[in-house]
Amino acid sequence: MSSSAAPVVNAEYMAEIERARRDLRALISSKNCAPIMLRLAWHDAGTYDKKTKTGGPNGSIRFPEEYSHDSNKGIKIAIDLLEPIKQKHPNITYADLYQLAGVVAVEVTGGPTIDFVPGRRDSSVCPEAGRLPDAKQGASHLRDVFYRMGLSDKDTVALSGGHTLGEEAFFRDYAESHKKLSELGFTPSRSTSCKSCDKPKMLMQAAAGVAVAAAVAAWAYLCESKKTMG
Ligand code: HEM
Hints:
Elements: H1 11-31, H2 34-45, H3 64-67, H4 75-88, H5 94-108, H6 139-149, H7 153-159, H8 174-182, H9 211-229
Bound molecules: protoporphyrin IX containing FE.
Protoporphyrin IX containing FE is lined by residues 35-36, 38-39, 42, 73, 133, 135, 142, 159-160, 162-163, 165, 212, 216.
């Protein structure tokens, strides 16, 4: 398994993370590229398989073998936009940088503040294609994929709010589920305090403009009615 060592998360690393955060804010605002940054973070993390402990937020999406998967069409744009920030902050792992970009993308577009814990190691092992959900398949496929990652129905529904970036339509608990997504298979070497975990402002809101979000919302409704019925 070709994984580099975990970065040492000390005060210096944390300070570098804060500098990179500022650079990411500037980049994402000036290039108006929040959606693709969030998509990059999600596609790096969303390959996680909790049984085999493979995939996940490990920066492997930077390799052509992975970013050329059909599901990753267009994602190279985000990888290239982030490369100058990686060059400027070389100690920060790709894995941390991509997840930080996802967190910043949500924040700069008015979404909830997400607690970010650094320390992910980079991997050069790319998962096989087909681990991310396929929009053409139904609810049971979505459920299988998110369960494989170790995420719950509630996380799936909350995270689907990622499609409504900038529309003030985040689900309640989005920040919590996003944090889980960004930490799949990653155990921080030390816990950092949650300085700015604001409760997400938005209440549950269905009706996303995207078919995927609508499908997930319908599914959540069905789950809820089943519960009510007994
Ligand atoms: C529930 C399963 C999901 C499916 C089936 C799905 C599918 C898709 C599809 C088909 C697109 C359009 C891609 C394109 O423009 O070619 C898309 C875009 C996007 N997805 Fe998802 N997605 C899912 C979950 C998520 C999650 C969990 C997040 C983030 C938390 C997310 C964030 C995004 C974003 C931000 C875009 C817009 C990217 C852009 O405009 O550049 N998606 N998704």
